[in-house]
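Hello,

Following up on my earlier ticket. Below are the two sequence lines again, exactly as submitted.
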Amino acid sequence: MEINIQKRILEKNETDADHNRAYFKEKNVFVLNMMSSPGSGKTETLCKTLRALMPEIRVGVIVGDVCTTNDADRLAVTRAKVIQINTDQFGGDCHLAAHLIDASARALGCEDLDLLIVENIGNLVCPAEFDIGEDAKAVVLSVTEGEDKPLKYPLMFQVADIAILNKVDLLPYLDFDAALAVDNMKKVHPGIPVFELSAKTEEGFEPWLEWLRKKVKEKTAR
Amino acid sequence: MEINIQKRILEKNETDADHNRAYFKEKNVFVLNMMSSPGSGKTETLCKTLRALMPEIRVGVIVGDVCTTNDADRLAVTRAKVIQINTDQFGGDCHLAAHLIDASARALGCEDLDLLIVENIGNLVCPAEFDIGEDAKAVVLSVTEGEDKPLKYPLMFQVADIAILNKVDLLPYLDFDAALAVDNMKKVHPGIPVFELSAKTEEGFEPWLEWLRKKVKEKTAR
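Thanks for your patience. The regenerated structure is below:
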């Protein structure tokens, strides 16, 4: 029974996602869905990314959390347009569904944006199943989380277009084999580009920014 | 619609959890449900805990993951009775539902156990909503995850009977305010006991073991 209900929810979500896709196409905005476990450093990565890309690239952010506006507050200093969704009003949802993105993207307004980043709820399972009409999905894994996470949560790494391996500044203090983590990502998603970086120190940041600039350019040039 | 479906699923789960509770009471076994984000160190904490408690306390473990038997393999060296649930057969479920615990607990056999630990799926949202008929819930937070997680994922910290703040050996290398993290836990759950420890170095491990020994004794003495 649960699986059938889940199927129907996902079908409804897919229709909503198609609707979003048409809106994003009309507005000529590149949409990136960023997903990860809680505490992998999505918000810090975003803060540094917005600082590097703006104002050349006009960026908006939709931040999802069950509760609090902490992340939106942290992002406010970047002067990007930011809107926060709190899912506690929607039964404490563990993911951002396409219909929530629809409402938020329209409230934010995408006319004057080149790039819209959705910081999804910290969860390595459920958000992977929910298409939001984005152009690309990114998964962030922190080096503190263990090398085997891509094997344990394969769907997230399969659906992601790129992966970020964050907090590499902590590698000297951990028993973490970064090469093995990257191998495991490529085992579940052959060829996935992986950016090894530290949002804190900005070590390894440039290739990630380059990828993002290129994607935005491709979409907005259409 | 989604919220109503969710309500029905949770009601069905509650009935299944009551069924488990009766079984655990009959078998005189204390059941602990351990929950956390991916990579917070549940398995390492368990390995060290089993080594310290066994054979005086007879422990069994049910390990939940979407995929892989990595955790069960790591726990096998402790010689505890271990059973692995992979939810990818059940639509990649993001939590362990009570009916899965029922089947696994009976397959494992609880007759010769004093303590059954359920290592839930790495997810700080969904497992908090699913009662499995346990005696107590523990949440593990790693110091690498940020101090604000209790505020962002309050339900998990509200339903937990105790919290473990893990990986304190990394504190010298992080901008993490452990006192603030503990304050945030107590803000959403006044009075919650918090064990600050490192599963890796076993620093701060004794109070946690003491709590667990006491709980097992109370239940099995009945």
